[in-house]
Specification:
Strand content: 5-15%
CATH class of one domain: Mainly Alpha
Number of helices: 23
Number of strands: 14
Distance between the termini: 36 Å
CATH architecture of one domain: Orthogonal Bundle
CATH topology of one domain: Isoleucyl-tRNA Synthetase, Domain 1
CATH superfamily of one domain: Isoleucyl-tRNA Synthetase, Domain 1
Oligomer: single chain
Radius of gyration: 31 Å
Helix content: 55-70%
Length: 627
Amino acid sequence: MSLEDKLFPTVTETLQELYDGVDEKQIQLQSTRKEFKGDITLVVFPFLKASRKGPEQTGEEIGQKLLEKSAIIVGFNTVKGFLNLEIANEYWLEQLNTVHQNDRYGLADETGKLTMVEFSSPNTNKPLHLGHLRNIFLGHSVSRILENTGQEVVKTQIINDRGIHICKSMLAWQRFGNGETPESSGVKGDKLVGKYYVKFDEAMRGEIKQLREELDAGNTDLLSDKAKETWQTLAERLKNASDEKAAKAVEGKIKEFIAGETPIMQEAKTMLLKWEAKDPEVYELWKTMNGWVYKGFGETYSAMGVDFDTLYYESDTYITGKELVEKGLSEGVFFEKEDGSVWIDLTDEGLDEKLVLRADGTAVYMTQDIGTAWQRFKDYPNLDGIVYTVGNEQDYHFKVLFLILKKLGFKWAENCYHLSYGMVDLPSGKMKSREGTVVDADELIAEVVEKAREATEERGHIEGMSDEEKENLCNMIGLGGLKYYLLKVDPKKRMLFNPEESVDLNGNTGPFIQYAHARISSLMRKADSISPVDTTVDLHESERELIKQMNLYPDTVSEASGTYSPALICNYVYDLVKSYNSFYQSVSIFKEEDPAKMNMRLVLSQNVGKVIKASMWMLGIDVPDRM
């Protein structure tokens, strides 16, 4: 029971005795601000009308009455309209004993709720990169936070293994690969396929330049009759553009048009049609190259310490999506345009028209997402909801998806949630996969581990460790620093990533928190047996603050679960470690002459370590016993 819950009945009774017409909804209890003396604060302003006194006089009146009625309130002070209440040491020491005797501190009982969390969901045309890392660490951490609040969680991803982007890598490999394989080149499978995705873009840019020159020269014989009409329309719009901004917008449309008309893109579109028709040669190449990628992804996930309970493949679910679109078309949910493409009109909902099936019958992302959602609720009949961990550039997509699912009559659509997060930037700017300017996930993990190794060796704290122990520690620190850095920022915010800062031992970093756990573990190795705390010992202010901070843990976990925000756990455990460091600097442990106080400080240290470890587990981070 929290302090607020414990005091609420007494405060309610006191106020109702003092003043007529007090409603318990008016009672606001909150933590006392650090600059004032006290542990919990009652907001006095709602009772001024009933008391017919000023804020300070009302506060004094309420405080005096509470002092008489409650054994755990030992003092108070009033600052303007805020009554700050001081709580007895015995209460805090009892709280410490409660934590100490509870192996499941902060863990909620099972709720029977089943939630699916989707994260990662990469394309099979490129390796995982820094942007994926924020997604993966966020989704994995949210899964663990939900588990801590009593939910059963299914961790999943949708493998985007089909579509024009996949055909681009396949076609480029056919053109430029000369039979290269991961084994023949010594290149990890996902990186090899990603290389050919970049090669496709390089080849297409060359063809765009060449085709543009031909069209500007008046040679339109390379275009179909329909494409000629489109080109003439765009050229006329460019010629008549009213200003530079308008001309730039038309130029963008022209570039997009020409890209679609290049021979290499036309060939990729043909390959996609062949794939959907299960052409044997195309399908076999698709299975082979995807197999390379899956093996590469598996190695990266293993290095991250991340796993999944079930996988879905777009190559399966797009078929279900197409069937649902056809059914929705017959029921009037969708409509067909003259070219045969299928759309939904969402203008009445303040959105626009959305394509759900191309004119040639091929599926779009929306098609497979409809099918995937339906399949998941079919596979898990007791599923309460799905959390989609996807970047905020897809905010509109998920608004449309959830609305389509509702219009198709699926009541469970109301339980679908988009965990939208901001992009990760580098000091050098935005990453672009097709141009090969991304930060590769494997390389980044290796870099932070190496920086952790350099910093650890420089401090000289690993003497006496075996080579294997040193390697495990450097991996723990490097990966922990990387995860913490990407999780400590509110998911909704865009962030700038700095790998050197992530492994710094000072400040709000993973290694700073890991070091505190290692320090506590060292203390506990030196300690004799410890026992429940004597609740009559005096408390130093730093000890009171540390117990109070530890007392916030269950509510913090609950809030993080409700908001899907690991950042709240990061901020909490960082504040806890700062409070512990203040305590550690303020009092002596093994030099303390009073055995009861020494025991209390060891119990306090041990349980702070317990909460640090549990908090970091929710972030997917291991903590060392030595560092």
